Amino acid sequence: MRFGETPIDEAAGAILAHSRRADGVNFSKGRILSDEDIARLKQAGVSTVVAARLGSDDVHEDEAAATVAKALAGEGIDVTAPFTGRCNHFAREAGLAVLDQERIDALNELDESVTVATLPPFARVEPRQMVATVKIIPYGAPKAAVARAVDVAKAANRPMISVAPFHAMRAGLVQTKLPGTRDKVLDKAVGTTTKRLTSLGSTLNGERRVAHDAKAIAGALAELKAEGCDLFLIAGASAIVDRNDVVPAGIEAAGGNVIHFGMPVDPGNLLLTAELDGKPVLGLPGCAKSPKYNGFDMVLERLAARLPVGRAEIVRMGSGGLLAEIPSRPQPRDETDSEDTGPQQAPRVAVLVLAAGRSTRMGGPNKLLAEAEGAPLVVHAVKAALASQAVEVVVVLGHMADDVRAAVERAVQPRSRVRFVTNPDFAQGLSTSVRTGIGALPTTVDAAVVQLGDMPGVGAPLLNRLIAAFSPVEGRAICVPTVGGKRGNPVLWARRFFPEMAKLSGDSGAKHLIGEHADLVCEVEMTGEAAITDIDTPEALAAWRARSTA
User: Fold this and answer.
1) How far, in Å, CA of 173 to CA of 198, rounded?
2) Which of 19, 126, 135, 273 has the smallest number of Cβ neighbours within 10 A?
């Protein structure tokens, strides 16, 4: 890759290294300079630019990031579209991050241009939480480095990054009592244990309170086993201090086997693991009565994720096992909190498909119901939205609402995530449909893509690229697709603009907000002309049909 000062007459096709915002020019770094861009820069008096030009042995940063990210990803991982050389891995479900630390280190040693950063191994993740990110440092990476990274990812015939989802468990709890043991303390332990299990999607199926005696413990285990429990928890009134103590003796009296006693985790040292008819049994340390994170949680999480928790796994918990010195454990971000204080979440982006217009320029028929490539225009738009990484799709109806809705419902799955809302004021212009759509979105949505129903070339990859570009923390709150420097549609809007969009009027939509918030606009260059091609006239429809069948 060549990098440095480049004469403006030689810069066409090069990648702009630094943003330029002056003299009527507003170009972001990473922009591939077109002939039109060069003309505008020369008109502004620019004679040289700092730019990068990829060689034949280089891969563009986005292509490199996508290639490596795909090779790394295993079960339970969703990979975002690449943007600025970055691809993120997000958890599909709640579970534990399963990472191959050795191969991650090996990949990061290959070449300084290719990097991957992850959560710690076995970190607990929530749905849509970021697990890892692949970042290509310069604007391109050597093909050889990308190929070696893929080889490392596939070397062991198992994924480097995956999420083991939590599975429901039916737990039984045995609590022992000594003279003076208060029921209030035992009741509190039931509540704490129930909350722990519930957070993992599991339940407390039954509880027994018995004397602190091996025979009594064995009897309680037998009863819980008969009730269908598949996990047994024993909280002794006195801490376990030896493999031959009362709790392990009770497990063996019930026909179980002790696997390991003690763990290099504090708090949680006195945890005991065992099995009864192939089902896990845990002798709990005293800290299990506390809601604070401890060694019991570490083992319980792995059991819920159906990961091994034998002696070998427990003795390796010592690295990072000094939990007493951790003041707090990060919790997932409150969905109603605008501050990014917790683990980074995949943005919750909705797509608003505007399908309420009267098609006045078509000369009569509703253009959204006109067929192209075997389906009405509106169906192309809805299917693209459903295939994207959007969390929900809202179709705004108006003119011929029943017919448009019927066309969509015939084409998509009955249980798809499409919602329909009707704009009673559709005759007053596009802004009324935007207002109706924005008003229908839940408070959990972080952003919305306003997609026109008459742009059949817009597919899921284009929508995903807009979603990947969205990052309010980095100043990318309005994401606009461009083709050869020309802005198009659809446009992604951060939630912060919803109040202003709810006050729109007329037939121009929210375009003026782009100019008013230029510092928050991110231009996302697209290939092809889908982002600048809409169908407004019979001639435009005929031309699009001709191109699509060529």
Assistant:
1) 14
2) 19
C-alpha to C-alpha distances, 113 to 88, 107, 135, nearest whole angstrom: 16, 11, 8
Query: What is the spatial distance between Cα 451 and Cα 430, in angstroms, rounded to a whole number?
Result: 12
Single out the residue of 126, 99, 92, 108 nearest to residue 344, CA to CA: 126
340, 473 in Cβ contact below 8 A?
A: yes
Q: Is 142 in contact with 58 (CB distance < 8 Å)? A: yes
Look at residue 43 and give its three-state secondary structure: helix
Closest by CA to 111, choosing from 68, 164, 175, is 68
Structure tokens at 277: 């008819």
Q: Are 114 and 141 in contact (CB under 8 A)?
A: yes
3-state DSSP assignment of residue 33:
coil
Q: What is the pTM of this model?
A: 0.85
Mean pLDDT, residues 458-478: 93
pLDDT value, residue 338: 42
The distance from CA 82 to its chain's CA centroid, rounded to whole angstroms, is 13
51 HSE (CA, 13 A, CB side)? 23
How much of the chain, in percent, has pLDDT values that exceed 90?
80
Q: What is the C-alpha separation between 541 and 501, in angstroms, rounded?
A: 30
State the CB neighbour count (10 A cutoff) for residue 11.
22
Residue 523 and residue 17: Cα distance in Å, rounded?
15
Quickly count: other Cβ atoms within 10 Å of residue 372's Cβ. 19
- Provide the pLDDT confidence category of residue 519 given band limits of 50, 70 and 90: confident
Q: Which residues contact 484 (CB under 8 A, 6 or more apart)?
A: 34, 36
Map tokens 């003026």 to a residue. Answer: 512
Residue 326: pLDDT over 60: no
Tokens representing 304 are 């819920």
Separation between Cα atoms, residue 261 and residue 325, nearest integer Å = 23
Contact between residue 452 and residue 381 where contact means Cβ atoms under 8 Å apart: yes
Q: How far is CA 544 from CA 96, 159, 370, 371, 383, in A?
A: 48, 43, 12, 11, 18
Judged by DSSP in three states, 501 sits in helix
pLDDT in tens, 125-158: 999 999 999 999 999 999 999 999 999 999 888 8
Specify the DSSP class assigned to residue 241: -
Instruction: State which amino acid sits at residue 149.
Output: A
Residue 401 has pLDDT above 80, yes or no: yes
* Residue 446 DSSP SS3: coil
pLDDT for residue 484: 86
Rounded-to-integer distance, Cα 146 and Cα 105, Å: 15
201: left (phi over 0), alpha (psi -120 to 50) or beta: left
How far apart CA 481 and CA 522 sit, in angstroms, is 8
> Is the dihedral angle over the CA atoms 128, 132, 138, 140 positive or is it negative?
negative
pLDDT digits (tens, 9 = 90+) for 255-289: 999 999 999 999 999 999 999 999 999 999 999 99
Residue (of 83, 89, 132) closest to 108 by Cα position: 132
The mean pLDDT value for 492-496 works out to 96
Q: Is the model's pLDDT at 340 over the cut of 60?
A: no
Q: How many CA atoms lie within 13 A of 279 on its CB side?
A: 20
